[in-house]
Amino acid sequence: MAAVGKTVPKSPKPRAGPGSLARGWLILYNIVLTAGWLAVMYVYILHVLNNSSSPEVYSGLYDSVEVVLKVFQSLALLEIVHAALGIVPSNVLLTAFQVFSRVFLVWGVMHPFKEAQTSLGASLCIAAWTITEIIRYSFYTFALLNMKPYILQWCRYTFFIVLYPIGVTGELLAIYSSLAPAAEQKAFSLEMPNPLNVSFYYHYFLVGVMFTYIPIFPQLYFHMVRQRRKVIGGVTKVAKKE
Ligand SMILES: CCCCCCCCCCCCC/C=C/C(=O)SCCNC(=O)CCNC(=O)[C@H](O)C(C)(C)COP(=O)(O)OP(=O)(O)OC[C@H]1O[C@@H](n2cnc3c(N)ncnc32)[C@H](O)[C@@H]1OP(=O)(O)O
């Protein structure tokens, strides 16, 4: 019997899922993105198998995956839209940091600079992104279909522990490889004198981006640690008999 005067803890309200139109869209989106990243993985593995004994094994990898990578990494921008519209309960800011950093790597670092394309960093981060995204989008698809295979859920909330550091190391190495060519070519830079009376040096901007990883990466990482605790790491509370 509940004691008089004692407050009974409220159980959290179950969160409403997306409406049927949004749900249909998300299922389609997640299936397409799973297929896209599977295609990246297929091309990646094929490239490695065909070049296993040559230095091209990592230096030529970007050329092989370029088109599929660009398409499917860019489609991730829709994730920010999903979070902003509230059709998925993700944090908009964290999602934006996560997606922008990758889209920026693809279009602002690898696309313009051969040195970044052929760096070890590029193949490291592309491998980490690919494994993460195949698991993540397929997990979301199953979840929307009211199925949550435990193995997939476990991978979704565990692999990041090693894949995040690998991905970030790869990204930083790729940006680092682009610094010298960016400075040399004065790429995307604006020198004085000019009518706007401002100067902009892209290689300094790239250095600035590298520094932003210091405050932002731990936030993303510990967000995932909290998600892991919430989803698979919870302690089962046994109700005490009074
Ligand atoms: C000029 C620009 C410069 C920018 C500079 C920025 C610097 C940034 C530095 C940081 C660098 C990071 C680099 C990243 C590298 C890598 O990715 S390496 C590979 C390893 N990576 C990972 O493992 C990624 C892990 N991160 C994420 O998954 C996300 O990005 C996240 C935003 C951090 C995840 O958060 P969240 O959305 O909260 O996670 P979930 O638990 O999965 O989802 C919460 C709920 O939302 C539902 N949901 C989300 N998306 C979908 C979807 N597409 N479809 C359906 N449902 C979705 C999900 O199911 C959850 O719902 P509930 O179960 O009901 O809670």
Automatic annotation (TrEMBL):
Subcellular location: Endoplasmic reticulum membrane; Membrane
TM regions (residue ranges): 21-47, 121-145, 157-180, 200-222
Keyword Transport belongs to the record: no
Biological processes per GO annotation: fatty acid elongation; sphingolipid biosynthetic process; very long-chain fatty acid biosynthetic process
Main location: endoplasmic reticulum
GO CC annotations, alphabetized: endoplasmic reticulum membrane
GO molecular function, one term: very-long-chain (3R)-3-hydroxyacyl-CoA dehydratase activity
Catalytic activity reported: a very-long-chain (3R)-3-hydroxyacyl-CoA = a very-long-chain (2E)-enoyl-CoA + H2O; (3R)-hydroxyhexadecanoyl-CoA = (2E)-hexadecenoyl-CoA + H2O
Membrane topology: Multi-pass membrane protein
Source superkingdom: Eukaryota
Keywords, comma-separated and alphabetical: Endoplasmic reticulum, Fatty acid biosynthesis, Fatty acid metabolism, Lipid biosynthesis, Lipid metabolism, Lyase, Membrane, Transmembrane, Transmembrane helix
EC numbers, comma separated: 4.2.1.134
This protein's pathway: Lipid metabolism; fatty acid biosynthesis
Family, similarity comment: Belongs to the very long-chain fatty acids dehydratase HACD family.
Job description of the protein: Catalyzes the third of the four reactions of the long-chain fatty acids elongation cycle. This endoplasmic reticulum-bound enzymatic process, allows the addition of two carbons to the chain of long- and very long-chain fatty acids/VLCFAs per cycle. This enzyme catalyzes the dehydration of the 3-hydroxyacyl-CoA intermediate into trans-2,3-enoyl-CoA, within each cycle of fatty acid elongation. Thereby, it participates to the production of VLCFAs of different chain lengths that are involved in multiple biological processes as precursors of membrane lipids and lipid mediators.
Designated name of the protein: Very-long-chain (3R)-3-hydroxyacyl-CoA dehydratase
Source organism (scientific name): Branchiostoma belcheri (Amphioxus)
Gene from which the chain derives: LOC109469406
